[in-house]
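# nightly structure sweep
# worker-07 picked up a monomer target from the shared queue
# config: single-sequence mode, recycle default, output format = structure tokens
# input follows
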Amino acid sequence: MAKLIYFKVSNPSDVEDLTQETFLRAFSYLHSYNPEKPLRTWLLSIAVNICRSWKRKQLVTVPLRNLFHLANDDTSSRAIANHHFWELRRLLEGLPQKERDVLVLHYVHELTLGEIGGVLGIPLGTVKSRLNRGLKRMRKGVYVEGREKGGVQVL
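# output follows
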């Protein structure tokens, strides 16, 4: 079981903690174990779920609007904010231009959806769908690339 956890988290101290948590969880849910099924698979499924929960907790959740302001701030957290800013910028650059334009106008320039429609000459429904699609693509990019090592969760 520790091997499975190690390949999911890679940090030895985290492996120890998650292995211990797996056994604690198994003990507390022992009443739900079906003795007709293999114990090993039951324990491994608990370990997988604990690793998933742990990885979700490793994400840093930052509202998209705040990232742009944080990157220019002269605070002690500037290095962290700057890292998130560049990660965000990389994700934005991976979007189609139409979706990127809507996201930048909304989150950087703080335009309303109606104002964005006026600037781009497109209907409000199109602005909403491009904003939604762009955010979905960014979230998917974060999930695929950042989820395994911790990263930014886009709100």
